[in-house]
Automatic annotation (TrEMBL):
Cross-referenced NCBIfam families: PRK05282.1
GO molecular function, one term: serine-type peptidase activity
Protein family membership: Belongs to the peptidase S51 family.
Organism taxonomic ancestry: Bacteria, Pseudomonadati, Bacteroidota, Flavobacteriia, Flavobacteriales
Name assigned to this protein: Dipeptidase PepE
Pfam families registered for this protein in UniProt: Peptidase_S51
Name of the encoding gene: pepE
BP-aspect Gene Ontology terms: proteolysis
Keywords: Dipeptidase, Hydrolase, Protease, Serine protease
Top EC class for this record: hydrolase
Transmembrane segments: none
Length: 235
């Protein structure tokens, strides 16, 4: 039974790392003493060790230990036997390439399908969709496939930004880019705004965080999905 939290971001303005999510995570990981952390997306310029320290500091406040997979000799075993899993943000291309290179993509999917609680933020949420093709990240490496974990039957666009009507910038908006995606693809996309997350319990997906999300489908006008509403991906 799938049990996931998929957040747009790890940090919202004016708060510390994961601070806004910690009350939710304390409940979500209530039976977990140690998290297996996947740091492969790591933000630019930060080492795995430094990234793990940031994550460990946050989880320490809810009495959960963090074990980063980059320190594990048998990484597949670490995923298979994890109490809980956290895949952090950074560059989605780098994350997906590393998961394939380490032969962890299938192992990760199988473990979450068994019910191991999974937290994703940013890139870690992007890979929960059908493909990684609606990420905002630069393609700085070339993964062997765009296919990802498929825990949810649509894609996520994390850090979704609405067009600014006062801006003088005439380049593409996020909405324009997602419409371009739908020129060649039929997978629905959910634009998750900062501070929002999805609560996934098996096939029930609920939007959380107090903000609406933007729902995109090929050939249809975008619509808003309200907070605490079920994401009806079959419509």
């Amino acid at each position: 039974m799938k049990n996931l939290i998929l957040a747009s971001t790890s940090t919202i303005y004016g708060s510390k790392y994961l601070e806004y999510l910690l009350p939710e995570l304390k409940i979500f990981f209530k039976n977990v003493n140690k998290i297996t952390f996947v740091p492969y997306a790591r933000p630019s310029g930060i080492s795995y060790e430094a990234y793990t320290k940031i994550v460990s500091t946050a989880f320490k406040t809810i009495d959960i230990e963090v074990n980063s997979i980059h320190n594990c000799k048998d990484k597949q075993h670490a995923i298979e036997n994890a109490e809980g899993i956290f895949v952090g943000g950074g560059n989605t291309f780098v994350l997906v390439k590393e998961l394939y290179d380490q032969k962890l993509m299938g192992i990760l999917k199988a473990s979450i399908d068994k019910g191991i609680p999974y937290l994703g933020t940013s890139a870690g949420s992007n890979i929960a969709g059908q493909t990684m093709q609606t990420t905002n990240d630069m393609p700085i490496v070339y993964p062997p496939s765009y296919a990802t974990l498929g825990f949810i039957p649509f894609n996520i666009n994390a850090h979704y930004l609405d067009p600014d009507p006062t801006s003088k910038h005439k380049g593409e908006t996020r909405e324009t880019r997602l419409k371009e995606f739908h020129t060649y693809n039929s997978i629905p996309v959910l634009g998750l705004r900062e501070g929002s997350w999805l609560e996934v319990k098996e096939n029930k997906i609920i939007l959380k965080g107090g903000l609406s999300a933007r729902w995109f489908q090929k050939g249809k006008l975008p619509i808003e999905i309200g907070s605490d509403k079920i994401v009806n991906y079959k419509s």
